[in-house]
């Protein structure tokens, strides 16, 4: 009995996990979940943490360091150092086999040719650039969710249109079969309608499969179980949105794009790296102080087998008189990196100009296509209504009715695609200027 109860407890999670359940999801909810669960976003966040920690680590070199060292050494037996004076031996330095060392030292870089200061600034700029990378990844996650969400909605709308068309063609088939029985239609006309119905059923299967795959993808992106039955509640906004002119949009993009901000920060960091490289031309000045508590203490003569404290302090100056122009070559490398970063900024601006321009004109085109698509659906519906009435009255052939049915289906699919294109082009345009509605 206990084994059965235990087995039931173990099987409950498996049973629950295997069950599909409805999950109502708006576009805003999908974006929120994706921002919470995106692995790429978490990687970008961890890079920010790493960059900030690297900055703090670099800043520690600007301050004094305190170091404690201790040790024990066992020496081998040697003959003590003695001298003979007037027939008598005097032991000058006794043999002490156990040696204990304790040293507390402090060191502070007084002057390093501005290397530490510039390195610290460079790390800080890189950390700020990592934050812009995070913002760029966040924008990308939002755009990917929007694209996936509206793609599913478009597929669902297309599926609905196909299902409506299937009902129409099925009614058409019933009519043509009745005409055939009455000798008013040929067998070939019946077969044409059946072929059209089969094609629609195949298209329906393909669309249903595409919806399932895209919903699984959306579940993965948002962190939901892949077994969830998503019910997408947001609908495409048929109303168009007005944006500033292209020149204003470009200025907004140049100001807001996180990729551009990140590159500009890295350009400044490259400039600091030039100064770091040039620090090799300057001397290095260090201050140091130590306190020793040793047994024996080597500063005592003769040596005594007891702990004794002494101290020292001093300033060290070091300067590379000749290093085969290593500093010069390091400076050239840093200047080349700075030049490359500057060119990368110019390339990115060119890319942003093209991207914003393409998305702007694509959105304008999508706005016009919506108007045309609405008119096309209205015309196709009226054409189908008139054609169907004529077919029922035996005034036209079955093929003409099939053409009207196909035209109606295509017009609805085109309309659905136009709605999708409007939403996607709007999302692309807002992404390209780094504008996202929350």
Molecular structure report:
With 438 residues, this protein is α+β, with helices and mostly antiparallel strands. It has two domains: 28-62 and 113-152 and 171-196 and 210-282 and 323-432, Outer membrane efflux proteins (OEP) (Up-down Bundle), CATH 1.20.1600.10; 65-111 and 284-318. The chain has nine helices and eight strands. It has a four-stranded antiparallel β-sheet, with no helix packed on it. A two-stranded parallel ribbon has the order 1-6.
| Total discrete domains | 2
Structural class from helices and strands? Answer: alpha+beta
> What top-tier CATH class of the largest domain fits best?
Mainly Alpha
Low-confidence stretches: 4-18
Here the CATH topology of the largest domain equals: Outer membrane efflux proteins (OEP)
Helix content: 55-70%
Tally of helical runs: 9
Report the biggest beta sheet as strand number plus sense, adding barrel if it closes.
Answer: 4 strands, antiparallel
Based on the model shown, name its key terms.
438 residues, alpha+beta, Outer membrane efflux proteins (OEP), four-stranded antiparallel sheet
């Amino acid at each position: 009995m206990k084994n059965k109860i235990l087995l039931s407890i173990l099987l409950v999670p498996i049973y629950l996990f295997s069950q599909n359940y409805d999950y109502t999801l708006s576009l805003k909810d999908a974006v929120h979940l994706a921002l919470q669960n995106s692995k790429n976003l978490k990687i970008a966040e961890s890079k920010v943490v790493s960059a900030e920690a690297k900055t703090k680590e670099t800043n520690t070199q600007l301050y004094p360091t305190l170091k404690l060292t201790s040790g024990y050494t066992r020496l081998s037996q040697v003959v003590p150092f003695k001298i003979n004076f007037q027939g008598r031996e005097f032991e000058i330095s006794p043999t002490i086999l156990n040696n204990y060392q304790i040293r507390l030292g402090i060191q502070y870089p007084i002057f390093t040719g501005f290397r530490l200061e510039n390195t610290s600034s460079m790390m800080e700029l890189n950390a700020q650039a990592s934050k812009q990378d995070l913002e760029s990844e966040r924008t990308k996650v939002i755009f990917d969710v929007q694209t996936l969400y509206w793609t599913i909605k478009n597929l669902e709308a297309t599926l609905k249109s196909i299902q409506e068309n299937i009902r129409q063609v099925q009614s058409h088939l019933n009519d043509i079969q009745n005409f055939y029985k009455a000798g008013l239609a040929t067998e070939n006309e019946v077969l044409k309608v059946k072929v059209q119905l089969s094609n629609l059923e195949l298209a329906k299967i393909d669309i249903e499969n595409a919806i399932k795959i895209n919903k699984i993808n959306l579940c993965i992106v948002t962190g939901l179980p892949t077994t969830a039955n998503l019910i997408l509640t947001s609908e495409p906004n048929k109303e168009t949105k007005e944006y500033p002119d292209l020149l204003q949009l470009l200025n907004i993009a140049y100001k807001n794009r996180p990729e551009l901000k990140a590159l500009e920060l890295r350009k400044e960091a490259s400039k600091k790296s030039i100064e770091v490289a040039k620090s090799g031309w300057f001397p290095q000045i260090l201050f140091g102080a130590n306190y020793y508590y040793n047994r024996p203490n080597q500063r005592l003569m003769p040596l005594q087998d007891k702990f004794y404290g002494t101290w020292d302090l001093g300033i060290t100056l070091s300067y590379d008189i000749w290093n085969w122009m290593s500093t010069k070559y390091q400076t050239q490398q840093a200047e080349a990196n700075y030049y490359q970063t500057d060119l990368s900024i110019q390339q990115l601006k060119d890319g942003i100009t093209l991207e914003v321009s393409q998305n702007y004109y694509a959105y304008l085109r999508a706005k016009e296509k919506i108007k045309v698509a609405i008119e096309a659906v209205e015309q196709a519906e009226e054409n189908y209504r008139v054609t169907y009435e004529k077919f029922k009255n035996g005034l036209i052939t079955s093929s003409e009715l099939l053409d009207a049915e196909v035209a109606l289906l295509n017009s609805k699919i085109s309309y659905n695609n136009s709605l999708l294109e409007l939403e996607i082009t709007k999302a692309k345009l807002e992404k390209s200027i780094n504008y996202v509605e929350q």
